[in-house]
Design goal:
single chain; 351 residues; alpha/beta; 3-stranded antiparallel sheet; globular
Length: 351
């Protein structure tokens, strides 16, 4: 841990919006608990907030009790809006006004899952880059054009932190812990959660093709699905075209118009992205990865990978191993979590 660790715990509030996503909330709050546990210090305190202090029902029907209402957030260092389903109809004007008050007081504001929609509705993302669940981004862009969305998993700045949904808030909170307390604690938390790779701010969320093209190009969606399902043994373009009852020429037109590249180039990109995942997340040899991604030879795979990724696959793996080694060297050999049990905050769950 860094020598200049502040003595006063950092206090983080979670504003639960009706129909919030429970997995996103849990992924954000549990790393804070583990940071306290592993450090044997109360580095973080947290408080669950609703508009009137009443329990809030999540999208899966589980009710979470709040510890405070929106009049009691003045002592916060950070406030995170937890969004979920039907976000455009789930927030209130009072919540927006309160968020504006917090911003004027200099409190760091954040959002997870679809919570960025609420920040945007309050005008608090104007001129700022933000991340949100891919399903929510089009509505934010349409209704709040001054907000600058990206497709990153999460975005972190001095006064804003926004994240897409699912378990991505875990990565964002670990990045926050890294900023405040260093890599040693982050590695220890990751080990406890059996998290073998902490995704970075530069990682992108994958937007399903069926969402980006909706129902306008069903043949193109089907073609891409076929490609994604056949990476180890790529299907010839003529065969792909026949599967969806179209010509090869029409297939090429579809890819150029909607994806900006040839079908062959897009197929190659899918295979190389899969190869990158295997390099980062498995111990498969480069030969095995080349075969699993449909390349006829290792030299051909290496050339394609270098041309697209900017480095050969061997260097990619060496960089990953070096990064892991640096983190492991700074990790304590043993964590005694039995000596001290700080107060973590309370969440009453009712069914």
């Amino acid at each position: 841990m860094k020598p200049n660790t502040p003595k006063k715990p950092r206090r983080i509030g979670f504003l639960l919006i009706d129909n919030f996503t429970l997995i996103a909330f849990a992924s954000a709050i549990d790393p804070l608990r583990m940071a306290n546990q592993l450090s044997s210090e109360e580095l973080y305190q947290w408080v669950v907030i609703s508009e009137h202090g009443e329990p809030v029902i999540s999208s899966d029907g589980i009710m979470i009790s709040a510890e405070a209402d929106i009049r009691q957030g003045a002592q916060l260092d950070t406030l995170i809006v937890v969004g979920g389903l039907d976000i455009t109809h789930s927030y209130t004007k009072a919540q927006l006004n309160w968020l504006k008050q917090l911003d004027r007081k200099g409190i760091q504001l954040g959002a997870i899952c679809t919570g960025a929609y609420v920040l945007a509705a309050a005008g608090l993302l104007d001129g700022r880059e933000f991340s949100a669940h891919w399903e929510c981004i089009p509505s934010i862009s349409e209704n709040f054009p001054k907000a600058k969305h990206n497709n990153h998993l999460y975005s972190l700045s001095q006064d804003r932190l926004t994240s897409s949904g699912g378990i991505v808030p875990l990565d964002m909170i670990l990045a926050l812990v890294h900023q405040q307390y260093g890599s040693e604690l982050v590695v220890a938390i990751s080990d406890m959660f059996i998290c073998d790779r902490v995704r970075t701010e530069t990682d992108y969320q994958r937007v399903p093709m069926r969402h980006s093209l909706r129902s306008t190009q069903p043949k193109l969606v089907e073609l891409v699905s076929l490609m994604e399902s056949n990476l180890e043994e790529p299907i010839a373009l003529d065969e792909l075209a026949s599967y969806v009852s179209t010509s090869r020429r029409q297939l090429e037109r579809l890819f150029q118009k909607y994806l900006g590249c040839t079908p062959s180039r897009y197929y190659l990109k899918l295979r190389l992205m899969r190869a990158r995942q295997l390099l980062k997340q498995t111990s498969l040899s480069i030969i095995e990865i080349a075969t699993a991604c449909g390349f006829v030879s290792t030299p051909h795979f290496s050339k394609c990978y270098r041309d697209y990724m900017g480095m050969p696959p061997r260097d990619e793996r060496l960089n990953i191993q070096a990064s892991i080694g640096d983190n492991r060297q700074s990790m304590p050999k043993k964590h005694d979590i039995s000596k001290h049990e700080p107060s973590y905050g309370s969440i009453d769950i009712k069914y």
